[in-house]
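Components:
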Amino acid sequence: MTLVIILGSMTSVIVDSPVPPAPRDRGRPAPGALPGTEGSGRWYVESVRPGDGPALRSLFAGCSPETVRLRFFGLPRELPREYADSVLACRPEVHDAVVVHRGDRRRLAGLAGLAAPAEAGPGAAAVLGVLVADEWQRQGLGRAMVDELLARARRRGVERISATVLPGRSRLLDAMARHLEPESSSLDRDGLTRVYRLGRPGR
Amino acid sequence: MAGSGRGPRERMVFSAAQLIRRDGVTATGMRDVAAHAGAPRGSLQHYFPGGKEQLVNEAVEWAGRYAARRVDRFLAELPRPTPGGLFAAMVRQWTDEYENSGFGTGCPVAAATVDCTASTESTRTAAADAFACWNRPLARALGEMGVPAERTEALATLMIGALEGAILIARAERDVRALTSVARELGPLLDGCATEAPPGR
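Structure:
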């Protein structure tokens, strides 16, 4: 998947959640400063909306092949329609997705999603995926989106999430482990998948 | 195939190509692909976040690369490479398969073309690119066998087109007649196009 998890920090992130948020989550600013954006306004993490299709395709088109490869493991030439449909359906229980922008939803800097497992059952884990435009990577946007998705997932009662990275990118999953409890890992030629257990809300 | 040295993602692409060439894109389900590849169903979500469309497109691209690589293998097995000999080798791959395994499968690129060109633009593009990928080494090989440069691409297209059409007819008839016919009739025509001394001779 390619957790472009960004461990830097940001000026302020306004979180707008479509699912009933815990009071402390609404409008929670992220700490720290976002380099190079002084005076350029706040960042907003918001739910994907049905009309975001053109902006999502634009975000994808602006990403480098390497960024696309890290997210999709291959090189789709355009935002895969099935994926876009899933995100734009705006059904958080199936595929919860958020975008990050600086006030103009036509110019998205990132997209993150948490897809329900294809098959329910014991140990099933929702699948986390993050895409951040090249110019905004490593500045905290991915982390802000992931935090929001995880907070919502906890409120929905999601117990496990999973993430996969390409071989050699395990530090991205290690970064996740600082905030979540790793439950299992599997490594093969194509990548490393780790499952994390989500704590209950408020923990 | 499962159990080879390939990783699960590559196995799933391979399995998708095998199932598409048997059942077509529409009838091939993600669950079928995971089962054929011996991979957990959930791994499809991880490795193909773009869903079936991404998997199908990658299977089509894989098939194009496979067909392109086969060209060099056919050439290496010919004692004296000629355009007609190369085409006969391409056809023989299919007659061997049909005589040994039945007529249940065709070309995955053709199957994806039939199923998806009207509905999925990205798959149409992937199929067109796969045919182009196959065409390039064929055209190059024809040039190396003395076919004038201005004709190599068109004759490569003729070879692929004749083969794909014969595959389709063979499956319909459950008989390799169409395949052996095009090899027999087209071979001399192709050989007659090699009018120049091969480069380097």
